[in-house]
């Protein structure tokens, strides 16, 4: 039978290996990779030192130490969700501004194109007048 310390340590190392693999394949970018590597490191540390919560929980006033792990995990998930929403908001704002700039450039390009057509038309009319004389 495998000790749970080895199991959680192995899970942490597998998560870290997966993160490094995804970073190498360019499927996961820097800030996200750092976040997940910190999570993997925490899993490894808690796997190696499972009694850590027994000593830390009373410092935070938690009577049942395993609850501290659950609360910390939920807190980290909430922080991760918040950072994802912030990043998505930033990307949407950037996309909206790029769309506005593209629309302005298309309008400007259309005006330049119409101006060129008008100038060519004037040249043609002027050229026709000169040919007729």
Automatic annotation (TrEMBL):
Superkingdom of origin: Bacteria
Transmembrane spans: 6-23, 35-53, 59-79
Signal peptide as annotated in the record: none
InterPro entries recorded: DUF2304
Annotated keywords: Coiled coil, Membrane, Transmembrane, Transmembrane helix
Coiled coil regions in record: 88-115
Name by which UniProt lists this protein: DUF2304 domain-containing protein
């Amino acid at each position: 039978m495998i000790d749970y310390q080895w199991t959680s340590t192995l899970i942490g190392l597998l998560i870290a290996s997966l993160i490094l693999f995804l970073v190498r394949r360019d499927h996961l970018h820097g800030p996200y990779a750092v976040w997940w590597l910190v999570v993997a490191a925490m899993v490894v540390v808690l796997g190696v030192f499972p009694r850590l919560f027994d000593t830390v929980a009373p410092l935070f006033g938690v009577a049942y130490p395993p609850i501290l792990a659950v609360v910390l995990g939920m807190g980290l998930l909430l922080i991760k969700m918040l950072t994802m929403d912030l990043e998505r908001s930033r990307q949407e704002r950037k996309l909206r501004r790029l769309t506005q700039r593209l629309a302005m450039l298309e309008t400007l390009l259309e005006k330049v194109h119409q101006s060129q057509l008008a100038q060519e038309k004037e040249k043609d009319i002027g050229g026709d007048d000169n040919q007729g004389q």
